[in-house]
Amino acid sequence: MEQTTSSRTAPLDVSCSITGGASPAQGSSSVLLPTGSVCSSARRLRRTDPWTMRPRPLPKSLSARSFDVHAADREGVVHRERLRRSDLVRPTRSIRWHQQRPPTGVDRIRAFRPVLGPGQFISHLSAAVLWGLPLPRDRPGDDPVHVTSIRPSAQMRREGVVGHRTTEGAAMVLTRWGMRTSAPAAAWVECGALLDLDDLVVLGDAVLSSRACATTVEELAAALAVRGRCPGARRLRAALGLVRRGSGSPQETRARLGIVRAGIAEPELQVEIRDEAGRFVGRADFAYRRERIVIEYEGDHHRTDPAQWESDLRRYRAFARLGWAVLRWSRSDVTTHRAAALEELAGLLRRRA
């Protein structure tokens, strides 16, 4: 008798519908379900697959800061798969932070605190960041993080970290932001192999001028002597002879270096100007007392901050009333127009000699 066509839905192999693979070989066993059931099963799988679902929100205590896996355990993140989701960044083993809220500067380095072991401390460029010291833009100091181990502790070797080793006698360690960190003078010496001469002078000026660092030239020299023939020692010795206390910014340091290298007498830094009665009138970035010349370096905030701009004008008028000539320098006078600025200064010094 001729076979009639059934009105029922044709059976479909579950494995083929879900995976898109080939049908089982003839003779192999397989489970057949109606097509509608297979589609429903696939949809249910997609809804419950943890790798296709939106990530479960982290506890509020973790969502706005970096954390380690042990902190996640304490806050109730029971599934380690959650810590491997794409919304979290893994800068190094066991540390996480949110992709949309990455920490920067000090906070980024502090994120590595849980990985520090006994005899280890933050050093080099990373220590400079913790002390709030200026670094060139191409050497931000927070990626990767520099960690030094005191022998016999092993040198740290892990992703996101540059490991170093030193001896107990050469280590100069203080606590900064809750972390064992190279002292400012030691951090300056450690950066000798990583920065050029001018950047080392900028860094050294900042170490001497920062209240947080509270460091003297003698301490810089002592730190260099302790390290002996360390990498960059020749550059460090040259920089040591050029650093000065009182620089207000990296650009002020570069302005001073430009003056000295042009063969012009070096000005005094942060000079208090007083009137005939001895009353304080203002402080000058650079000054030549005998010639009564003031040089003021003006960063962009002197232009954009109305209160600062008005204060500057009053101060300059007061200087002029006392017979001081005021040269106002901006960034271009230290870079692209340096020659013209130095020529003007040299001429003014000759006329007022």
Work out the strand percent.
15-25%
- What's the gyration radius in Å? 32 Å
Order of helices and strands: EHEHHEHEEHEHEEEEHHHHHEEEHHEHH
The helical percent reads 25-40%
Q: Please report the distance between the alpha carbons of the first and last residues.
A: 127 Å
SS-based class: alpha+beta
Cα shape: globular
Number of H/I helices: 15
Structure overview:
By secondary structure, the protein is of the alpha+beta class. It has three domains: 60-102; 108-240, no CATH class; 250-352, VSR Endonuclease (Endonuclease, Chain A, 3-Layer(aba) Sandwich), CATH 3.40.960. It is built from 15 helices and 14 strands. The protein has helices at 14-19, 35-48, 60-63, 69-74, 105-110, 124-130, 184-190, 197-209, 217-227, 233-240, 250-261, 301-304, 306-321, 331-334, 338-352, and strands at residues 11-13, 32-34, 67-68, 88-92, 95-98, 120-122, 145-150, 161-166, 173-176, 179-182, 268-274, 280-288, 293-297, 325-329. Strands 11-12-13-14 form a four-stranded mixed sheet, sandwiched between helices. α6 packs antiparallel against α7 and α9 (217-227) packs antiparallel against α10 (233-240). The chain is globular. The protein starts with 10 loop residues before the first strand and ends with a helix. The model is unreliable at 1-33 and 41-49 (pLDDT under 50).
Question: How are the secondary structure elements laid out?
Answer:
Layout: E1 11-13, H1 14-19, E2 32-34, H2 35-48, H3 60-63, E3 67-68, H4 69-74, E4 88-92, E5 95-98, H5 105-110, E6 120-122, H6 124-130, E7 145-150, E8 161-166, E9 173-176, E10 179-182, H7 184-190, H8 197-209, H9 217-227, H10 233-240, H11 250-261, E11 268-274, E12 280-288, E13 293-297, H12 301-304, H13 306-321, E14 325-329, H14 331-334, H15 338-352
Parallel strand pairs: 7-8, 13-14
Antiparallel strand pairs: 1-2, 3-5, 4-5, 6-7, 9-10, 11-12, 12-13
Helix pairs in contact: 6-7, 7-9, 8-10, 8-11, 9-10
